[in-house]
Amino acid sequence: MRFPKLFCGFLLGLAACTSPNLNVFEKNVTIPGQTWHYDLRPSVQFNVTDTNAAYSVSVVCRHTDAYAYKNLWVLIATRKPGDSAFRRDRFELTLQDNSGHWYGTGMDDIWEQRIPLYTDPIHFSKTGTYIVQFEQNMRDNPLKGILDIGLRVEKTP
């Protein structure tokens, strides 16, 4: 008799911790074997329901301390709802300062960074599902030391 009450209490507590509208999307994709080949194009999908809101968009990158460069060049292809073609843009993600210190947060030899793609929040032009693909655009193929790549989309206040 005590177990069902405890279980119901746990479920109610869990429901109180969740919100139907978190205003944040984050999805990361693991790079197999920490070696990112040119032909590996991880992708994420997210849904936009409010085109009046402003959003901050960041790339989430997890890498090892052994990553050989201060930056990461990526091609980011985005497909809007209803479109058949992707729009590709090239971004430089700065991972390290000039003195060799990694940005972001680290634990042991793993670092995670959220790097804003735009200086100002953006507005999405259409509601629906957006697809974003990442392609590494460095000289090394494969590129070693990248654990995950992903996207964070957050509604700004």
The structural class is mainly beta
What is the chain-wise order of helices and strands?
HEEEEEEEEEEE
**CATH architecture designation:** Sandwich
Spans where pLDDT lies below 50 across 5 or more residues: 2-20
User: How confident is the prediction overall: mean pLDDT?
Assistant: 89
Distance between the termini: 46 Å
Overall spatial form: globular
Q: Tell me the strand order in the biggest sheet.
A: 1-11-4-8-7
- Count the beta strands: 11
Strand fraction band? over 45%
What share of the residues lie within helices? 10-25%
What's the domain count? Answer: 1
**Rg calc:** 19 Å
Précis, in short:
The protein has one helix and eleven strands. The longest helix is centred in the N-terminal third of the chain and has 16 residues, at 2-17.
Keywords:
globular, 157 residues, Jelly Rolls, 46% strand, mainly beta
Describe this structure in words.
- The protein has 157 residues and is mostly beta strands.
- The protein contains 1 helix and 11 strands, in the order H-E-E-E-E-E-E-E-E-E-E-E.
- The longest helix is centred in the N-terminal third of the chain and has 16 residues, at 2-17.
- It is globular and about 40 Å long.
- The termini are far apart.
SSE map:
Blueprint: H1 2-17, E1 24-30, E2 35-36, E3 43-48, E4 55-64, E5 71-79, E6 87-94, E7 105-107, E8 110-116, E9 128-136, E10 143-144, E11 146-155
Antiparallel strand pairs: 1-11, 2-10, 3-9, 4-8, 4-11, 5-6, 5-9, 7-8
